[in-house]
Amino acid sequence: MSKFIDRVVLHVRAGKGGHGCASVHREKFKPLGGPDGGNGGNGGDVILEVDANVHTLLDFHFHPHAKAGNGKPGEGGNRDGKQGADLVLKVPDGTVVVDKHGSIVVDLVGAGNRFVIARGGRGGLGNASLASKARKAPGFALLGEDGEEMDVVLELKSVADVGLVGFPSAGKSSLVSVLSAAKPKIADYPFTTLVPNLGVVVAGDTTFTVADVPGLIPGASDGRGLGLDFLRHLERCAVLAHVVDCATLEPGRDPVSDVDALEAELAAYKPALAGDAGLGDLADRPRVVILNKTDVPDAAELAEMVTEEFAARGWPVFEISAVSRAGLRPLTFALADMVHQYRVEHPKAAPKRPVIRPIAVDETGFSVIADPEQPGGFIVRGTRPERWVRQTQFDNDEAVGYLADRLARLGVEDELVKQGAEPGAYVTIGDVSFEWEPTVSAGVDMVPTGRGTDVRLERNERIGAAERKHASRVRRGLVDDEG
C-alpha cells in the first residue's frame, strides 16, 4: 500500500575534494624533470530539483541519507583527478527546506526549479600548480576539502487552488471524487482521511486543482490531532471552502458552530511562510460554504435555515449532495470563477532569465580575537586562513612553511603582534592549534632545501655520533664528564 509522507528529515553530505599530487617527472636521461603532480577533482554537489512526476517525500523517508560523489586525487604526469558526480534529488512541487534552527532555506515551487543544498569540497592543488620562482619543485601538495554536511527538514505544502476544510467525515473526500477523476478512500463510517487528496477540475475554459485537507478539530492550530501536520497544505490555496455535514447526529454540533470552530483554528494558525505567494494569512483568504449531504431530508431543512446566516457574512453558500451530485455544477463554476479572478489579480511572474555574475573565489578579510578558553591565546577567523589550514599536510615541513608564508602575506603575523601575542602563545585557526613563534621568518623568499623540508622548521633532537662516543668513554671512565 502506498504511503503519503509530507515531512522528513534529510541528512545531506556533499562530496570531498580529491587531494593534490606531489610528483616529480621522471624520464631516462632527465633526472630533474620538474614537478608534474595534478590537481584533485572537486567533490560533487547535492542538488534539490522539483519534478512534476514526484508527489510525495516517501523516497526520503526510507532513504534519509544523501551523499554526492567524492573527487578523485590528482596523479603524476599532470593528470587532474576526476570531478565528483553531483547528486540530484527529485522533490515534489511545493517543497520547503528548513534548517535545524527552523529557518526557511528555500521554497521550491515550479517544475525544474533547482537549489544546491550542499556544495562539494574543493580539490587540492598538485605541486605542479604550486611551483613558483622561489619554489621550483615543491615537495608537497594541498589536501582536498570536505564537502558541506548538514541536516535539513523537507516539508511538502500542496500546491492547490481550492482547499476543502471541514470536520472529519464531512464529505470532503467524496466531493473531490465527484468533482475530479481522483479516487480517494471513502467509507460509510466516521473516520478522517490520513493524507491530502488532490484532484484536477475542469469548468469551461478554467482548469484548477482542489485539495481535500484531512479533517480538522478544535485545537488543531496548537497541534491537537492531525491539525498541524496538514494545516500547512492550505497555505498556498487561493480559496478556502468549508465543507459542512448537515446530516450529522453528534450532539452539540450544527453547521454554524462547525464553521466557527474551524474559523478559529484558521485564524490561530501561523503559517511558516508568512504571506506565501502573496496570499496573506489563512484568515484573509476568500471563503465558500458548502452545505453537504442535502439528499437527507432533515439535512436539507437545516441547510435552508443556516444559508442566510452564512450569506450575511459575505460568503457564497452552496447546497450540494456528493452522493446524488445535486448542486455540483453551480459549485464547480463558482469555484472556477473565484480561481480565475485570483489568477487575474495575481498573474504569474515571467520566468527569470539566468544571470551569471562573477563570484569572488575567496574573501581576504580575517579577524583575530582573544581565546576565551586559553589564557594568552588567540583565535584567527576568516575564509582564507581556515581553508588554508584544512588544505595543509602538517606532517610535511615544507607544506607547513608554505602555510606560514601565506598567513604572513595575508597579514595574520602583523595582526597577532598588534594584539600583543607573546612567543609560545596558542593560536587556533579552524580545528588546528599551534604555538606561535614570531622568530620564524615568514613571508619572505627562502632558499629551498630538500623536498618536503623547510630549514626554518628543522628540529634535530637526535644525539650525534661524536656525542654518543664521548658518552661511552665517560661511562667506561676513560675521560671525566667535563672532558
From TrEMBL:
The keyword Oxidoreductase does not apply. Its EC number is 3.6.5.-. It is an enzyme of class 3 (hydrolase). Its cofactor is Mg(2+). Mg(2+) binds at S173, T193. InterPro entries: G_OBG, GTP-bd, GTP-bd_Obg/CgtA, GTP-bd_prot_GTP1/OBG_C_sf, GTP1-OBG_CS, GTP1_OBG_dom, GTP1_OBG_dom_sf, OBG_GTPase. Residues 160-340 form the OBG-type G domain. CDD domains: Obg (cd01898). Residues 2-159 form the Obg domain. Residues 64-85, 462-483 are annotated as: Disordered. Its main location: cytoplasm. Residues 358-438 form the OCT domain. GTP binds at residues 166-173, 191-195, 212-215, 292-295, 321-323. Keywords: Cytoplasm, GTP-binding, Hydrolase, Magnesium, Metal-binding, Nucleotide-binding. It is found in: Cytoplasm. HAMAP family: GTPase_Obg. Belongs to the TRAFAC class OBG-HflX-like GTPase superfamily. OBG GTPase family. Monomer. An essential GTPase which binds GTP, GDP and possibly (p)ppGpp with moderate affinity, with high nucleotide exchange rates and a fairly low GTP hydrolysis rate. Plays a role in control of the cell cycle, stress response, ribosome biogenesis and in those bacteria that undergo differentiation, in morphogenesis control. This is GTPase Obg. It comes from Nocardia thailandica. The gene is obgE.
